[in-house]
Amino acid sequence: MAQVTAQMVKALRDKTDAGMMACKRALVESDGDMDQAVDVLRKAGVTKAAKKAGRSAKEGRVLVTVGDGVAALVEFLCETDFVAKTDDFREFGTALIERVATDYDGDGDISDTVAEQEKEALVQLIGKIGENMQIRRSARWQSDGSFGTYLHMGGKIGVLVDVSGEASDELLKDICMHIAAFNPQYVSQDEIPADVIAKEKEIAAAQVEGKPANIIDKIVIGKVNKWYSDVCLVKQPWIRDDKSCLAKAAPNVTVKRFLRWQIGEEL
Q1: What is the pTM of this model?
Q2: 253 Rama class: left (phi>0) / alpha (psi -120 to 50) / beta
Q3: Within a domain: residue 133?
Q4: How do residues 112-144 score in pLDDT, each as one tens digit?
Q5: Backbone angles phi, psi at 108, to 5 degrees
Q6: CB 168 within 8 A of CB 194
Q7: Rounded to a whole number, what is the largest CA-CA distance in the chain?
Q8: pLDDT tens string 74-100
Q9: Helix axes 119-129, 87-102, angle to 10 degrees
């Protein structure tokens, strides 16, 4: 049997755009014959799948799972909503989100790691279904607090929140629904970078240019505070009572972090 070298694998990959492991298997099966290896990949649908990788994938589902102090959120894309509803897509997604929670390490954004590790399996699925697919974003969190999750419109929007304090299941759901509906950018004003606040103050000052100097500062402060109530989760009008806010409705709960992902949104 011919020895399969790294150079041979690279050459086959450059020729077909197939994954490294798929190329290596094809070369082993073809005893090192490059043309036969291409045929092996074509029969497996892998080269066909690789060509589809350039096509736009803006449909799909956000997936979420929680268990044993670990939570995971994944954005799994395809080209059409029809494919997103197929058994093959859903079964792969269900297995994928469980793998992200249990087979991976770390706390935070692991998008690049998951995309690389799942590449071969995804190529096989693309070849089978016939549409481009992408594991666009993946996050894995570890916490000693409480997790809340919510999927809106069957997974078109997915929310994950990590809180500490006295949070019932009902409150966690309400927080997640609020995040899905109002799309806050920050938990609180303490999270907002100083340069972002400075820019907002600059904009507010420009809007009141020409007014008496002794009232400009008060107007700017008022405008920036109003902006805080637009972009900060704890200050936004609360989903259950728009005369209140989360900071007042649940003073014993601290939101440590949250994610709100919408299928195909601009990053």
Answers
A1: 0.79
A2: beta
A3: yes
A4: 999 999 998 998 898 888 888 999 999 999 999
A5: 130, -150
A6: no
A7: 88
A8: 999 999 999 999 999 999 999 999 999
A9: 170
